[in-house]
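Board notes, transcribed. Complex of a protein with S-adenosyl-L-homocysteine.
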Amino acid sequence: MEPLTPPEPVTQAAIRIDSHLGGAHERSLADDVLDGLTRPFKELPPKHFYDARGAQLFDQICELPEYYPTRAERAILEETATELATLTGAAELVELGSGTASKTRVLLDALTDAGTLVRYVPVDVTESMVRDCAEELTDEYPGLRVHGVIGDFERHLDRVPAAVGPRIVAFLGGTIGNFPPGSRRRVLREIAGLLGPHDHLLMGTDLVKDPEVLEAAYDDAQGVTAEFNRNVLRVLNRELGADFEPENFDHIALFDPEHEWIEMRLRARSEHTTIVRDLDLPVHFAAGEEMRTEISAKFTADRLESDLSAAELELVRWFTDPEELFALTLSRAVRDPAGASRTPG
Ligand code: SAH
Ligand code: AVI
């Protein structure tokens, strides 16, 4: 019998995944809970919504009739992807908060057609999302390399691998709106540090519109967003040994016209005290007390340009859908007067 031929050595693995979470991530949840639930107005940062169940609920939100941002952004991408591929000549797509990368495929298709695409770098806190999407995309795009980064884009941008050519950093879905104004500019400045002289930031932002349309998008008739909101309590129960009863909280979504953002809150139905066992922390809620779980800022072109320029980014193109519900912007790092780009990092 012929000896079995050993398999060919893999010289260029299609998938590489680096994880920067684990202990540090757990500490960040604990710190956020300790800080946020002992304030006079209780608050939790939205990044803790996205365990595997939260990510699934978010996917369902994207299909809801009331939640227009996903459809509007997809429509803009379909309209502009070829132009974006030509403008950027990108060899690499780095995506922050990549999720299932569902809309990203529109861009990957255009870059594949242009013949420039080499690598995709998804960055997300949800491990299963990064792993699943790496598997799926290497199947769907033969020859594509995927370097997944499981991490927090507020803390781990320095772990994004060095570029393999002109790069697009995509920050889609309006996720930048989940940061309050000061942190938003800080995050944008850090993202600008990923951009070399031939690179671009492609960012999705939701636009200011009729408050009724906005509030419906965050308080859908089927109650999926309410379940997504309450999911953060299940995360705290599992990860920190808390004993929240999610059904004891009502989902609230209100448009704040002064700040032009949607605010999601959880309102306690009755007075009670929850114990967060791992932190040895009793948390008292009065009946009707509200805890803020997310802001989702809505933009005007002026506000967006001033946020970009505060982060030393300049607008290259502004695209919107026919109803002007959502905007997709392409920007680049501001160059100094001598023409040299800032040092990335
Ligand atoms: N970009 C996708 C998903 C948006 S949902 C879209 O447009 O549909 C927000 C995504 O960002 C989730 O996948 C969530 O896990 C991720 N995310 C939220 N905060 C994050 C953080 N600080 N660091 C890394 N990923 C984060
Ligand atoms: C991810 N992020 C942009 C969503 C948003 O619209 O702010 C999260 C979301 N919250 C409720 N529905 C969707």
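Confidence is low (pLDDT under 50) at residues 5-11, 341-345. The chain has nine helices and 13 strands.
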